[in-house]
Amino acid sequence: QVQLVESGGGSVQAGGSLRLSCSASGRALTSYGMAWFRQAPEKEREIVAGISRNGATIYYAASVKGRFTISRDIAKNTVSLHMSNVKSEDTAVYYCAAVMGSLATMAPEYDYWGQGTQVTVSS
Question: Half-sphere exposure (CA, 13 Å, Cβ side) for 49?
Fold first, then answer.
């Protein structure tokens, strides 16, 4: 079992940057596919970016490709999401999630979740 804690959320102006971090405890992140999801009010939870257990596969949603970067620090057991050129539509609660199997793109496939961190983009 793994426990996930997100940090780094907050308010940012459109066009700015923000970095989210997900700290894991209990097991090494290399045991899991890891992803960042987000959920805006009255919308479904959607995947933003994901990285496979061995780091060989990285996925980005079309809406963030070229603006967001997912990375992990194996030594620190953390996964980060660097958000740049943010837009108002990026406003949401961002969640870190872990899946024991292959990297997946749908929320129900994930086994563990953090509590979420709010990101608000103002124009």
Answer: 19
Determine the Cα–Cα distance for residues 99 and 58; give it in Å rounded to an integer: 14
* Residue 116: closest CA among 16, 40, 17, 25: 40
What is residue 31's three-state secondary structure? helix
Which residue is it, tokens 């970095």? 19
Residue 1 binned pLDDT confidence (cut-offs 50, 70, 90): confident
Q: In the block, which residue shows the tokens 């899991």?
A: 32
Pick the closest to residue 48 from 59, 32, 37, 62 (CA basis). Answer: 37
Q: How far is CA 19 from CA 12, 94, 105, 114, in A?
A: 11, 11, 21, 16
- Which pLDDT score, from 0 to 100, does residue 53 have? 93
Percent of the chain with pLDDT over 90: 93
